[in-house]
């Protein structure tokens, strides 16, 4: 179990994020068309997993916008967002915001939260995903891993993207 915070109050997760140097767990999520997205879909690519509670919050939306803008020009890199949002909400958000450089996915019917150790077990947000970023290399090795210490703050974009420079 890892600890983050929600508005200053400790919030715990089901486990720990994958650590730098280890292989990232495989995953299966759902895209905006209700199709399956798996880690195998990105084989041979670098992947930034932008994990958050809900795109309908200001900080989560900001992280999608930031990664959409900042990672767009990175060679052989795909940004995949993962939340518990329904795919319809993710599609609506991206359409309204003109987001086209990230792949938004939902973990609403998968074990992603458990596999990556990010499902919150307590706090008012129990059941959704904590805010985290995991960067995976072309061979599936974790290059960067951050569980954001306070869910209501943005991740360290510079640190996440620095490993891809």
UniProtKB/TrEMBL annotation:
Similarity annotation: Belongs to the peroxiredoxin family. Tpx subfamily.
Subunit (UniProt): Homodimer.
Transmembrane segments: none
Role this protein plays: Thiol-specific peroxidase that catalyzes the reduction of hydrogen peroxide and organic hydroperoxides to water and alcohols, respectively. Plays a role in cell protection against oxidative stress by detoxifying peroxides.
NCBIfam families: PRK00522.1
Gene this protein is translated from: tpx
Superkingdom assignment: Bacteria
Protein name, as recorded: Thiol peroxidase
Organism for this UniProt entry: Galactobacter caseinivorans
């Amino acid at each position: 179990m890892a600890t983050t915070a929600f508005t200053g109050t400790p919030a715990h997760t089901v486990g720990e994020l994958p650590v730098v140097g280890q292989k990232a767990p495989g995953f299966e999520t759902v895209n905006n068309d209700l199709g399956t997205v798996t880690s195998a879909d990105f084989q041979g690519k670098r992947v930034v997993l932008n994990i958050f509670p809900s795109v309908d919050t200001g900080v989560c939306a900001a992280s999608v916008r930031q990664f959409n803008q900042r990672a767009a020009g990175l060679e052989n890199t795909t940004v995949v967002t993962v939340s518990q949002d329904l795919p319809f909400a993710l599609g609506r958000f991206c359409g309204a915001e003109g987001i086209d450089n990230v792949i938004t996915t939902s973990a609403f019917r998968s074990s992603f939260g458990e596999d990556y150790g990010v499902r919150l077990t307590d706090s008012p947000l129990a059941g959704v995903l904590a805010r985290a970023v995991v960067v995976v290399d072309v061979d599936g090795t974790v290059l960067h891993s951050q569980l954001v210490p306070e869910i209501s703050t943005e991740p360290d974009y510079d640190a996440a993207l620095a490993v891809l420079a």
